[in-house]
Design goal:
alpha+beta, Alpha-Beta Plaits, 4-stranded antiparallel beta sheet, 4 strands, 56% helix
Length: 200
């Protein structure tokens, strides 16, 4: 019952976050999922630890080791790392019922609030390096408009000791878009030095 309440409250937190978010750009579906899963996982951890200080320190130590030894690129992946630790801890502490209930409710949260958009509708992170003094903005925008929907400029930074400008975009690929065709087309633009495209 407590895990179910945590699931509901986590969903409420995610909805409030989405409604009150003030930054420009699309809300990351992975972060929304993480908010819901963490609510369930923390409720599960609280039940496993109880008043036992030794378990609390064991959990802190395990998470610290994983935090510095495991490289994750997505907040949702971090939540699953914690998920695995907590389920293992529940089994080790002989709280099998809590572990099974947490596995069910946490899995339910991950399935229901999973990031939407597979295939061509996935979100991509694009970084384009342009030489300083090159007026490639319009050309880049035209290429992005042909391949992406909802393009958002996330960051700009200098590279090569100030000799280049790095433009970071977050966008959704059109259904007919091709990542390879996009990278090739951007590389052919005058002034573009490098292109990096990653699924986010």
């Amino acid at each position: 019952m407590r895990l179910g309440v945590a699931l509901g409250l986590g969903c409420a937190v995610a909805v409030i976050y989405r409604l009150t978010r003030q930054r420009d750009g699309a809300v990351s579906p992975s972060f929304m999922t993480t908010l819901v899963m963490l609510s369930v996982l923390i409720a599960m951890v609280t039940q496993v630890i109880g008043d036992n200080q030794a378990r609390a320190f064991s959990l802190v130590g395990a998470l610290a080791i994983i935090r510095f030894r495991t490289v994750v690129e997505d907040t949702r992946d971090t939540a699953f790392v914690i998920f695995a630790v907590v389920v293992g801890m529940a089994a080790g502490a002989n709280y099998v019922t809590v572990g099974l209930a947490g596995l069910f409710v946490g899995g339910l949260a991950a399935v229901i609030i999973r990031p939407r958009g597979a295939g061509g509708e996935a979100t991509w992170q694009l970084t384009v390096r342009v030489g300083l003094g090159q007026d490639a903005d319009l050309a880049i925008a035209a290429v992005l408009a042909r391949h992406f929907d909802d393009v958002q400029l996330q960051a700009t930074a200098t590279g090569r000791q100030g000799a280049a400008l790095d433009l970071s975009y977050r966008a959704r690929m059109q259904p007919a878009g091709s990542p390879i065709a996009l990278v090739n087309e951007l590389n052919r633009l005058e002034g573009v030095q490098s292109v990096e495209l990653r699924r986010s």
